Amino acid sequence: MPQPITPAPRLSLADGAMIPQLGFGLYKVPAADAARLSRAAIEIGYRHLDTAAFYANEAEVGEAVRGAPVPREELFVASKVWKDDNGFDSTLRAFDASMSRLGLDSLDLYLIHWPVPSTDRYVDTWRALIRLQDEGRVRSIGVANFHAHHVERIVAETGVAPVVNQVELHPWLPQAELRAFDAERGIRTEAWSPLARGRVLGTPLLDDLADKHGRSPAQIVLRWHLELGNVVIPKASSPERLRENLDVFDFALDADDLAAIATLETGERTGRDPEFD
């Protein structure tokens, strides 16, 4: 068996917890593959697994965590409440259902998956997450796909800030203003779709940087995320790709590289704008 890679460094969260900077994102990983790939990820060196009720693979992720060859406290497991369950009581029920599927005693991070402003239930959802944290059922709480004004509202109405804001973020959509907003408030920005679902990898500029550093274009983009200070959760569909994605901590991009990647910004999204979802 190939040697494991040294796990990603951990970044501090505002509540005192520590989050591995690079994890395995399980969006669009079929349930039939999720346990196998999660086990492989842990064996390779991953310590951060990101799932969600909507992904329909929580049970398989939990199976891999329970059978992991490392102590549970070394693993960081995140899940999310789906937008259909936004609301106070419905979120508490959704959390119970997620924990039953995962088969775990506690969760490291629980997120509101989408604010869905049109239904105006995300503040009540946030109140439910605060309660779950107060009860010790989840270590850290955060949000996903929140614009700055969504974050401002939940903080204004509850006095509690999220420690993570997970958003679509890649070279086409670097989210500089939102990253600055989060940083000013001690919120870690976490990138989903960090490779723009693979579409950004056909860019000649990234091919050139890959040649310069002797790396793959995907590794160049993931290293860019790390240089920005993002938490990043790339998906992978094979152990080989899992290994490639994690093997990004022994090189660095220089200022010219970062300036070149900045020219790729177009504002294009691969998913929906949270304002209109």
Structure description:
With 277 residues, this protein is an alpha/beta fold. It has a single domain (10-198, 228-237), classed as Alpha-Beta Barrel (TIM Barrel), CATH 3.20.20.100. It contains 10 helices and 10 strands. It has helices at 31-44, 58-66, 88-102, 122-134, 148-158, 176-184, 204-213, 217-228, 239-246, 255-262, and strands at 10-12, 18-20, 24-25, 48-50, 76-81, 107-112, 138-144, 164-168, 188-192, 231-232. The chain has an 8-stranded parallel sheet. A two-stranded antiparallel ribbon has the order 1-2. A hairpin with a 5-residue loop joins β1 and β2 (18-20). α2 (58-66) crosses α3 and α4 packs across α5 (148-158). The longest helix is centred in the middle third of the chain and has 15 residues, at 88-102. The N and C termini lie far apart (45 Å). The model has no long low-confidence stretch (mean pLDDT 97). The active site is at residue 55. InterPro entries: AKR (IPR020471), Aldo/ket_reductase_CS (IPR018170), NAD(P)_OxRdtase_dom_sf (IPR036812), NADP_OxRdtase_dom (IPR023210). Keywords: NADP, Oxidoreductase. It comes from Agromyces ramosus. GO terms for molecular function: oxidoreductase activity, acting on the CH-OH group of donors, NAD or NADP as acceptor.
